[in-house]
Amino acid sequence: MTMLKTSPLDLAWPSWMRTRIPTWADMYEGIEQETAIRVEEYQEDGHYVIRAEVPGIDPDEDVEIVVEDSMLRLSVHKQREKHVEDKRHWRSEFSYGSFKRSILLPASSTQENVKATYENGVLEIRIPLNGKATKSHKINVTRRDK
C-alpha cells in the first residue's frame, strides 16, 4: 500500500479509510458558501449593527435570520430568473443558490427586540446591547423599498 502525499496536510488515504475518517475536503466543504455573504459590523446607539449585501432577493421569502447562543445565523436563497432561450449568453457572473453566514455576537447583546430591515439590496440587522440572553428565535425582516 502506497500513500501519496498531495499537500502537507492532506493524504491520499485508501478508499476503505476514507469512509471512516473525514478528509480535509469534507471538513471544508461549503466554506465558500458560508462566507459568500459580505457583511459589515459596527456599534451604534446602543446596538450592534450588521449590514449584509444581498441584492436581488425577496426578503419576505428568501431570508432567514436566527439568533441562538450568542450566534446570528443568516441564510439567503437566491433563485435564478426565467431563462430565455433566444438570448446568446456570453457571460453570467450572477450568483444563485443558498448562502449562509454565521456571526458571533458580542457578550452584551440580547436576542430580544432584534430588528431587521431590507432596503436597496442591503439587509440591516440591529441587535440591542443590554446583556440579557433569551432562547433562540427567528427574526422577521421589514421591507422598506416598496
Summed up:
This protein is 11% helix and 40% strand. It has 4 helices and 11 strands, in the order ββαααββαβββββββ. The strands form 3 sheets. A 5-stranded mixed beta sheet has the order 3-4-9-8-11, with no helix packed on it. A 4-stranded antiparallel beta sheet has the order 7-6-5-10. The chain has a two-stranded antiparallel sheet with strand order 1-2.
Write the layout of secondary structure elements.
Elements lengths: L4 E3 L2 E2 L3 H4 L5 H4 L3 H4 L3 E7 L2 E7 L5 H4 E6 L2 E8 L18 E8 L10 E5 L2 E7 L8 E3 L1 E3 L3
Parallel strand pairs: 8-11
Antiparallel strand pairs: 1-2, 3-4, 4-9, 5-6, 5-10, 6-7, 8-9
Structure description:
This protein is mainly beta. The chain has a domain at 33-80 and 96-146: Immunoglobulin-like, CATH 2.60.40. It is 11% helix and 40% strand. The chain is built from four helices and eleven strands, in the order ββαααββαβββββββ. The chain has helices spanning 15-18, 24-27, 31-34, 59-62; strands at residues 5-7, 10-11, 38-44, 47-53, 63-68, 71-78, 97-104, 115-119, 122-128, 137-139, 141-143. A five-stranded mixed sheet has the order 3-4-9-8-11, with no helix packed on it. A hairpin with a 2-residue loop joins strand 8 (115-119) and strand 9 (122-128). It is elongated. Mean pLDDT is 75; it is low at 1-9.
